[in-house]
Amino acid sequence: MLKGIIIKGISGFYYVEVGDQLYECKARGLFRKKNITPLVGDRVSISVVDEDEKKGVIEDIHKRVSELVRPPIANVEKVIITFSIKEPSPNMSLLDKFIIFSEKENLEIVIVLSKIDLDKDGEITRSIKEEFEKIGYKVITVSTVTGENIDKIIEELEDSISVFAGQSGVGKSSILNAIDPSFKLETAEISKKLGRGKHTTRHAELYKIGKNAIIADTPGFSSLELNNIEIEELQEYFVEFGQYADCRFGSKCIHKNEPGCGVKEAVEEGNISKRRYESYLHILDEINNLKGKFKRKL
Fold first, then answer.
1. Which of 14, 142, 143, 288 matches a 20 to 30 Å C-alpha distance to 156?
2. For binding Zn(2+), which residues are annotated in this chain's numbering (predicted)?
3. Per-residue confidence band for 224, with pLDDT thresholds at 50, 70 and 90
4. pTM assigned to the model
5. Quick one: 73-216 is in which CATH superfamily?
6. Residue set of the binding site for GTP
């Protein structure tokens, strides 16, 4: 059998790259019986049924390092969370949600602020960059118009499988095209009526840059589900809370209404971003509403 990686999956066909060869494969029925679906990014073993036509069958899916649901990709190590400064304007709550999901999956996070050429005085860019760098996240500002910092994106992609994530129209496909024009990915014009981009990426697909970097372009999202996150769990994904969570009620404190809360004190003292804390409270209420019958009153 040959070993390779699934780079694309469409309508039950999986395209497996083995060295410099690409095989169109079907998955064994055994996977369906076990309720296992092959994912883009899966490292697999295949048997060849037609070498001339490059057709095969996926016989085995190797153990996954990670598994994302939205987008459905396996073995991602790093997420490049991309948000534009303008057109569309940054949805900070959505950015926080992307970070939550990335933290939950233990992915290395890099935040990319795109279209900085539209921020004439640079104030929006500086404000967002400072907020997230203070937390400890790496932030890269880029422009596909001027080419600024595209080289830094390439450096971040080395020696890993990375996924680009972010709302539609923020420039993910444009950045990939700037990295390598041969990708020729479809890009979207921003709908003036909706203020957001059209979904141009229809499925997850992996692209290779040189020998050591594999990146994924994925469908854009306008919302993220929170029903798989528990109330007490949420604070773990606001990583800046950790050093200040010396609260009177200890680990039972959810940093909302409890007295003697170290996180709330840190917000008042300016050590934790007030915007981030308010975002946390908003998402906390969102989760509580989704749970419906959650017994604990917030």
1. 14
2. 247, 253, 255, 261
3. low
4. 0.82
5. P-loop containing nucleotide triphosphate hydrolases (3.40.50.300)
6. 114-117, 166-174
